[in-house]
Amino acid sequence: MERSRSTLSESPERLGRTAKSFSTTITALKSATDRGRAELIRDVVDAFRRLYGSVLRFVQMFADGQGSFLAAGKSGSHSFSQLLAVLGEQAKTSKFGRLDELRAAIEEARSAEQLRDAIFSDTYSNDHAALRKVAVALERLDATFVGLCVEHVLERHARVSLVASSED
After folding, report:
1. What pTM, to 2 d.p., does this model score?
2. Which end of the chain has the lower number of beta carbons within 10 A, N or C?
3. Calpha distance 105→28 (Å, rounded)
4. How confident is the prediction for the chain on average, in pLDDT?
């Protein structure tokens, strides 16, 4: 028995069918009637994206003036775990004032990609409360990194202002 296989490059006319004989209706396999679920999935993805951006800006703040990290690639070209490792090393090198708190936040953030990937799990993706909990956990982590970064910048500016005023 010989089987006939067609490739995408073969035209429908060549195969003895007309283009009009193909269905033009697209049918969703899974209905998207659950708008709340879709919004929660979006919230999880957005929260992770904001967390990634905050960690990247924190890394860039430490690299400011060195140019070492900025030349390595654009936003999104580093994995989240790479960014966390770089942040930890840069904070240690620069004698970051709240290093213990930053290390704890980095350790907690190591699970952020797994939290984000919960949207692909049948268990989590259909559980509104679980999705909401994941989004809140990612937002809390983001707020922790932003707070630590902002506090560091404010302390650095205060030191610079103090040195400048003492020179006057």
Report:
1. 0.71
2. N
3. 41
4. 79
